[in-house]
UniProtKB/TrEMBL annotation:
Complex and partners: In the presence of PdxS, forms a dodecamer of heterodimers. Only shows activity in the heterodimer.
List of catalytic residues: C79 (nucleophile), H177 (charge relay system), E179 (charge relay system)
Official protein name in the record: Pyridoxal 5'-phosphate synthase subunit PdxT
EC number: 4.3.3.6, 3.5.1.2
Reaction catalyzed: aldehydo-D-ribose 5-phosphate + D-glyceraldehyde 3-phosphate + L-glutamine = pyridoxal 5'-phosphate + L-glutamate + phosphate + 3 H2O + H(+); L-glutamine + H2O = L-glutamate + NH4(+)
Residues annotated as binding L-glutamine: G47, E48, S49, R108, I136, R137
Keywords: Glutamine amidotransferase, Hydrolase, Lyase, Pyridoxal phosphate
Length: 201
């Protein structure tokens, strides 16, 4: 059984851990170097990318995590986690850094700050099925390398569709929060399952 860490600096740590357990992984919290070294894969939850960047450095995790991602450790980032996995950020604050892993430029707060939270139905491109997605001050992918696979798109206030779920090698990023179960809805673990499947392959 695979051990998947959830970066436990900010965000929906418990919800991600629950989703990972549902798809058959052992979930652990990662806050220290020894904990990072013990996992086969990692989830970077949403929150505030500027804060996650600062906390990673404060916990001496930034460089070790950057290298593990560069070495190909499977990783999934949601929302602020997507921003952390981008090579370039539009709307970054001064000095803000990302970990990289996916050759793409993301736009922070792309759907507009006024759209604090929105739910929408997406087409999950890998199988053409519908996915219910929750967005919270979400980024989108503004530009990307041809090697990046687009897994889902959503319409922005500009009337254009933009990638909101992507994969590059063993790195997955979503603008939305796959760990959130809609009230009265059932859990949708496709994104977490994709991450766990990447460990095996
Ligand atoms: N707007 C946040 C950022 O720029 C991301 C929001 C989220 O993770 N829900 O980091």
């Amino acid at each position: 059984m695979s051990t998947v860490g959830v970066l436990a600096l900010q965000g929906d740590v418990r919800e991600h851990a629950a989703a990972l357990e549902r798809v058959g992984a052992t979930a652990t919290r990662v806050r220290r170097l020894a904990e990072l070294e013990a996992v086969d894969a990692l989830v970077i939850p949403g929150g505030e990318s500027t804060t996650i960047d600062k906390l990673l450095r404060a916990f001496d995790l930034f460089e070790p995590l950057r290298s593990r991602i560069a070495e190909g450790m499977p990783v999934m980032g949601s929302c602020a986690g997507m921003i952390m996995l981008a090579t370039d950020i539009i709307g970054a604050i001064e000095g803000q850094r990302s970990l990289g892993g996916i050759p793409m430029t993301v736009r922070r707060n792309a759907f507009g700050r006024q759209v604090d939270s929105a739910e929408t139905e997406l087409v999950w491109e890998p199988d053409g099925s519908i996915m219910h997605a929750t967005f919270i001050r979400a980024p989108w992918v503004e530009s990307w390398d041809p090697a990046v696979e687009v897994l889902a798109t959503a319409a922005g206030p500009d009337g254009m569709r933009h990638p909101v779920a992507v994969r590059h090698r063993a790195a997955i990023a979503t603008s939305f929060h796959p760990e959130i179960v809609a009230p009265g809805g059932t859990a949708d673990d496709r994104v977490h399952r994709l991450l766990v499947d990447l460990i095996a392959s």
